Amino acid sequence: MLAITPYYNSPCYIGSCSTFMKILYLITKSNWGGAQRYVYDLATHIPKGYEAVVVARDNGVLAEKLRVANIRFIPNISYWQIFNTIRKERPDIVHSNSSVFGGLGSFFAFVLRVPRVIFTAHGWPFSEDRNLFWCIIVYKLSWFTSLFSDIIITITQKDFARGKRMWFVSHKMRLIYNGINQIDFYSREDARQKLNLPNDKIVIGTIAELTPNKGLIYLIEVAKQIPNASFVVLGSGELDPELKLQIANCKLNSFWLKGFIPEASRYLKAFDIFVLPSLKEGLPYVLLEATQAGLPIVASNVGGVPDIVGDAGILVPPKNPELLARALKTLINNSELRNDLGARLEDHVTKLFLFQKFLSQTYNLYK
Predict the structure, then answer these.
(1) Section 41-60 average pLDDT
(2) What CATH number belongs to 188-352?
(3) Half-sphere exposure of 64 (CA within 13 A, CB side)
């Protein structure tokens, strides 16, 4: 596909002597999740000689952050508008970042003869815990998406292995881990004071959007089994009323939903243990942040969580509050183990998940 002549007569295409190349990033929503942060990091650190333009369905947090950073944002209303946007913008590269936009964006870019099409799989959707018929249909759609992409980036070992098993597209697969910059943490004392947390209890915490996939309903079940610890969740979302009702019904006086907090990662040192009871994940940034804070981690064995945690944390099956509670109790009762796991995780992550490495490996695919 790279040999196809672009459909437009612009001097700004790969291999030309132009002063810049335009990269069109496509993503479905402009809320603030892992995929959105991924696009934001790439668009705001774009090398000299490139122009970044981001297209998403609505005007959420991602759109606001991009505008502050002076990155052009185009709100998308319909699928047909994706086609028109690609046609009008005439990008040199289309980089898609969701299953829906990935399929349509890659196909439209192929039809319009965009020189290079890249798709990042933030977790293959066909690997979700759904019925077999749904998984088969979604697998075929994911394969279709891959056919029209020149390069497919996966961010976890599991997704890379699944992609390598796809017919006719295995050679397009690349594994590139996300990375994060150094975080300016609040001290333990300041973070606890700002969050109004007690100093005389073990604090088990997480940062998560309040959605079903985050498994927070199981964390409430765990809290019932561990009355000698405090639990705190930083984040907002659709399940906020339901979770608050369940907490009240269970009479959990030491379980707090703190809502959305800007720069929530800065508060991580307020926790003694970080917990992630998710049902589904890609490569969660929040775990990278927790390891940078030196926290021990107990998490569900899903998605790219094992890539981050390895053997330096405790992994449990999703939807299993009994095993999750047992793992947390082990850490609560052993401060030496908490410190050891936190230090091992921090060392592991600083070697593999470097921000500049993530940027350079991705930008090299644009050349």
Answers:
(1) 93
(2) 3.40.50.2000
(3) 4
Indicate if 188-352 has the same CATH topology as 21-175.
yes
May I ask the CATH class of domain 21-175?
A: alpha beta
Domain spans of the chain?
21-175, 188-352
pTM, entire model: 0.86
Span 331-354, mean pLDDT?
92
